[in-house]
Structure formats: C-alpha cells, structure tokens
From TrEMBL:
Keyword list, A-Z: Amino-acid transport, Cell inner membrane, Cell membrane, Ion transport, Membrane, Sodium, Sodium transport, Symport, Transmembrane, Transmembrane helix, Transport
Function: Catalyzes the sodium-dependent uptake of extracellular L-proline.
Catalysis: reaction(s): L-proline(in) + Na(+)(in) = L-proline(out) + Na(+)(out)
One family name in Pfam for this protein: SSF
Name this protein carries in UniProt: Sodium/proline symporter
GO biological process, one term: proline transport
InterPro entries xrefs: Na/Glc_symporter_sf, Na/Pro_symporter, Na/solute_symporter, Na/solute_symporter_CS, Sodium:Solute_Symporter
Segments traversing the membrane: 6-26, 76-94, 124-152, 164-183, 195-219, 234-256, 277-298, 325-350, 371-391, 403-422, 429-444, 450-469
Organism: Pseudomonas azotoformans
Main location: membrane
Family matches, as PROSITE patterns: NA_SOLUT_SYMP_1, NA_SOLUT_SYMP_3
C-alpha cells in the first residue's frame, strides 16, 4: 500500500473532514441534551438526511448489493418492505413522537420517554428497555465494524484484525468529541455522498457492459431466473423480506432524529426529502448488484474477490471502473454509510447508559459537564465491546443487521407506535410488549420456526400483549391528560 495511493489520500481527507465536524459540534455541546439530542434543533433537511443515513448502514452498499448479485431481483422485496415501513413511520410516528417526548418530561431517550409516558415509578420499564437497547445495539454496532473492516481489508490489503481497528477509529473519534450534533451534521454529508455513489455507479456499470439491452441479455444468459421476483421464494419468504419494514417503528437511532427535530412543522418536509433520498438510494443499490451480474459474467478474470465474498460487489466495481481518485470518493461512500449508522448506534447506547443508568440510579445530582463526559466514556466502552464481537472474520454484515433489526422492531416497534396513537395503553402493557417482543425474537431465531423472519411473530405477539395487558388495567388521569395535550399540540402544528 503506497502513501501516494489516491484512494488512501481520499479516505484520509474524508475522515479528517468528519473529525473536524466533530470538533465544530464540540463547541455547541454544553449539556447532556445537546450531546444526546442536539438540543432539539435539527431543521427538516438535516432531520431527513440524518434519519436516512443513520438507517442505511454498510448494509446498503455491501449486504443488499451482494444479495441481489447472488440471487437476482427476488431479493429486492426487502427494499420494497423498507420503503413502505419507512413511509408509515414518518407518517404515523415521527411528528407524534416529537410532541409526546416533549410533553412527557422532555424525554431525551426512548427509555426516558417510556418511563415518563407511563408514569413508571419502579424504574423497571426504564431498565428493561435500556438493557434491550444495549444488547441489540451492541450486535448492530458489530455489524458496522465488520462492514468497515471489510472495506479497509479489500481496499488496502490490510489484515482483517488491522482493518477492524482502522475502520472503527474515525467514527469513535467524532462521536466521542461532538455527540449528536456531530453525528447529525456528518450524517448529512454522508447521505449526500451515498446518493452520489449510488446514482453514478450503476450508470457507469451499465455503460461498461454495453448498455441496457446488452446488460439485460447478459444477466438473462447467466440465469433467466435473475429477473424473476418470485425465484426460490415462497409466500413466507416474501412476507419475511417485506417484514423488514416493520422494524422502522422501533429503531432507537432513527426515532432519535424525530425527537431532535426543531418542531413538528419540519416533519412533513423532512418526510418528503427522506423518502426521495431513500427510494433513489435503494434503487441504485439494487441496480449495482443486478448490473454487477452482467459485468462479472463478461469479466470472469476479475470476479475472484466477489466470488469469494459477494458483499464486495460494489467495492470491486468501484475499483475496476473508475479513476482511482473517483474510486476513492465512491468507496468513501461505504465508509460514510458505516460511520453514519455506527456513530448513531454508539450514541444511543451511550445515552442509555448515561441517562437511564448512571444519572437515574447512580448520580442523580451529577452536573451536566460530568454527564457529557460519562456519555463520552460510554461511547468508548460500547465500541470496544462491539469490536470484540466483530473480531470473527467469518461474520456477514446482513446476518448481524437482520438479528438486531428484528430485536428492536419487535421489542420497541409496537410500544412506540401504540403509545403515540392510543391513550388507553398502560405501563404494564408497555412492559409486556417489550418483553414479549424481545423474547419472541430470541426464541424464534434460535429454533428458526417456519422459516419466517423473527420480526413478524415478534411484532404481532408484542402488539397483542400490549392490547390485552392494557385492557386488564387503565391509564392514570395524568397519562390521559398528557396524551390529549400532546395530540392537540400535534394536530395544531403538523
């Protein structure tokens, strides 16, 4: 690896810019609210792009293109499910959650919101939800670190162990220093870079393979079933892929963006921006994997790395088809996807440990400066644990993401969704929903029942548990009063 390598220089410039943004955000971080939610000051553009970038991890440029490359368009059901789920999340949850968190103790985290919304004096709801966040997010963080390691490994010829640390270092640096503002500002830059890469790359691959007709003929010649949306799928298989969309209602790092918006009025514009960005990115991702089939069929001599690990399809196409400087920018988009999601996840874990454990149970009188520094220490702690989990070089990005996504979607999705639309929900109903959702995902995953993605039974059983247990009791007058005030506020300002 030469120091004059254009790709390396591009990476260094990009990482330096992200860390610089972190230091700029550091100057605007005065208290724990600033560090965890940016003082609820995000405008519609930053809210939209930050929500998108924090959602679309290295999975967008590695896991999904690899799945399309291996199996054809039948894997694109997952993209359809995600688009539907994200839209419904923006429509039903985003604005209401922004208002409900403000009316319920100006909550900074999901456990904080659950605790205030349901008047949980025991702290049990806060503890269990914080534990769920730490367990599943540490797995999710590991997936981001694996994606970053794969990128550095294949781009610079590093060993997996070295690449593991190189890929994680920059993200840890700017999250540690700048907190939520750094994460949100860098997300906006990273979202721009990702959409540039995912529009440009499929166009160039298409040109390199001889245009649309030639490309489609080559894909068909490789395997006619590549065009078949129902290839090797069953009803359960399609439902499982579409079921990914349910996960949006419970992802703490995405929901935090809604909570941090400057007002409900910003949400509608943010929804339009975010959905446009998402549809273009997912379309580009599917195209990269699909057109890659034609390219590597025509050039089998360079297909070795992709044959060995299909999640490298975007990386190899960027290296083969572009000037090294442009390739450096495109590969930085993978780093952007990894960093944007990993940084959000580290921050949510840090906030759970700081706000929901340290401040609530250990140091109720802690100063704001102390809490910010504890938050930074927790970022380092969670990162080290995630690096330990990611140390196995046989890890696959999509497998790690799917488990964590299901865990959050089932444990928190029904609780968040129902809590913002139904005033009859109770504290015991919320507790039952979180426990039933999380346990169902773990058990279903272990036994691989019916071949059905574990988020679907988890979401259904958790929703039923919330309804049944809530009906056995009744919300307090204070809970109903705050819900009605928040709903009125939402309807006046949406």
């Amino acid at each position: 690896m030469s120091v004059s390598n254009p790709t390396l220089i591009t990476f260094v410039i990009y990482i330096a810019a992200m860390v610089l943004i972190g230091f700029m955000a550091y100057r605007s971080t005065n208290n724990l609210s600033d560090y965890i939610l940016g003082g609820r000051s995000l405008g519609s553009v930053v809210t939209a792009l930050s929500a998108g970038a924090s959602d679309m991890s290295g999975w967008l440029l590695m896991g999904l293109p690899g799945a399309i490359y291996m199996s054809g368009l039948s894997e694109s059901w997952i993209a359809i499910g995600l688009i539907v789920g994200a839209y419904l999340n923006w429509l039903f949850v985003a604005g209401r959650l922004r208002v409900q968190t403000e009316h319920n103790g100006d909550a900074l985290t999901l456990p904080d919101y659950f605790s205030s919304r349901f008047e949980d004096k025991s702290g049990l709801l806060r503890i269990i939800s914080a534990v769920v966040i730490l367990v599943f997010f540490t797995i999710y963080c590991a997936s981001g670190i694996v994606a970053g390691a794969r990128l550095f490994e294949s781009t610079f010829g590093m060993s997996y162990e070295t690449a593991l640390w190189a890929g994680a270092a920059a993200t840890i640096a700017y999250t540690f220093v700048g907190g939520f503002l750094a994460v949100s500002w860098t997300d906006t830059v990273q979202a721009t870079l990702m959409i540039f890469a995912l529009i440009l790359t499929p166009i160039i691959v298409l040109l390199a393979t001889g245009g649309v007709d030639t490309t489609f003929l080559a894909i068909e010649a490789k395997n006619p079933d590549n065009f078949n949306m129902l290839k090797n799928t069953s009803f359960i298989g399609i439902i499982s892929l579409m079921g990914w969309g349910l996960g949006y209602f419970g992802q703490p790092h995405i929901l935090a963006r809604f909570m941090a918006a400057d007002s409900v009025k910003s949400i509608a514009k943010a929804r339009r921006i975010s959905m446009t960005w998402m549809i273009l990115c997912l379309g580009g991702t599917v195209a990269v994997g699909f057109f890659g089939i034609a390219y590597f069929s025509a050039h089998p001599e360079v297909a070795g790395p992709v044959t060995e690990n299909h999640e490298r399809v975007f990386i190899e196409l960027a290296k083969l088809l572009f000037n090294p400087w442009i390739a450096g920018v495109l590969l930085s988009a993978i780093l952007a996807a990894v960093m944007s999601t990993l940084s959000c996840q580290l921050l949510v874990c840090s906030s759970a440990l700081t706000e929901d454990f340290y401040k609530t149970f250990l140091r109720k009188t802690a100063s704001q400066v102390e809490l910010v520094w504890v938050g930074r220490a927790m970022v380092l702690l969670v990162a080290l644990v995630a690096i330990g989990l990611a140390a196995n070089p046989n890890n696959r990005v999509l497998g790690l993401v799917s488990y964590a996504w299901a865990g959050f979607g089932a444990a928190f999705g029904p609780v968040v969704l129902i809590s913002v639309i139904w005033k009859g929900m109770t504290r015991n109903g919320a507790l039952a929903g979180i426990l039933v959702g999380a346990i169902t995902v773990i058990v279903w995953k272990h036994f691989e029942l019916l071949g059905l993605y574990e988020i679907i039974p988890g979401f259904i059983f958790a929703s039923l548990a919330i309804y049944v247990v809530s009906k056995l009791g009744a919300p307090t007058a204070g809970m109903v009063e705050r819900f009605d005030a928040a709903e009125k506020d939402y309807n006046l300002n949406k």
